Amino acid sequence: MKSTMALALALAASTSTVLAQPVRWTRYTIPQTGTAVDFPSSIFTEEAGRPDGYGQRFRTADGRADITIQAAPNVANDSPAAFLARKGPPLRIQYKRVTPRFFAVSSYKGDKVWYDRCNFSGRLVHCVLINYPAEEERAWDDVVTRISLSLSGK
């Protein structure tokens, strides 16, 4: 019991330390597609590989949260609603907004919150995908909102 409580306190302290510090934002751009997003480079400090299409994955130093900035061709020229349906999202989505120009969805998977936003322009889909601990959801709200609203593409 004591070790569980100590672990919970240590996790809470490490998260509050990361998110309590002033966040350093950088504009991340994928040169090949013009996809751009405000990126909290002081939180996601480590590169974590490349996704399909164009872009980059990053994660926190402790590996508890990650972000993927990605652009891919919209081969079928799907609308946001059709594209999302084709991806087959889980049935229990907690948040879903679909417009003619973008979709944003979020839910829980195990002990994580996942958030996906994809903007559609021309024949490209510009996306940002974020995963972070569910127990820290409120602490991440402002960061996720800024990232989401800053996503753009040509």
Features:
alpha+beta; 154 residues; Protein Transport Mog1p, Chain A; 9 strands; two-stranded antiparallel ribbon
Summarize it.
It contains three helices and nine strands, in the order H-E-E-E-E-E-H-E-E-E-E-H. The protein has 154 residues and is of the alpha+beta class. The relative contact order is 0.18.
Strand order of the largest sheet: 3-4-5-9-8-7-6
The poorly predicted ranges are: 1-17
Number of folding domains? 1
β-strand percent reads 35-45%
CATH topology: Protein Transport Mog1p, Chain A
Q: Provide the gyration radius in Å.
A: 16 Å
What would the average pLDDT be, to the nearest integer?
Answer: 88
How far the N terminus sits from the C terminus, by CA atoms, comes to 53 Å
CATH architecture name: 3-Layer(aba) Sandwich
Structural class by SSE content: alpha+beta
Number of E-state strands: 9
Fraction of helical residues: 25-40%
Order of helices and strands: HEEEEEHEEEEH
**CATH superfamily caption:** Mog1/PsbP, alpha/beta/alpha sandwich
* CATH class bucket: Alpha Beta
**Count of alpha and pi helical runs:** 3
Task: Based on Cα principal axes, name the global outline.
Answer: globular
Q: Main beta sheet: strand number and arrangement?
A: 7 strands, antiparallel
Describe the protein's architecture and organization.
With 154 residues, the protein is an alpha+beta fold. It has a single domain, classed as Protein Transport Mog1p, Chain A, CATH 3.40.1000.10. Helices cover 27% and strands 39% of the residues. It contains three helices and nine strands; from the N terminus they run αβββββαββββα. The chain has helices at residues 2-20, 80-87, 137-150, and strands spanning 25-30, 35-40, 46-47, 54-59, 66-73, 95-98, 102-109, 112-121, 124-133. It has a seven-stranded antiparallel β-sheet with strand order 3-4-5-9-8-7-6, with helices on both faces. A two-stranded antiparallel ribbon has the order 1-2.
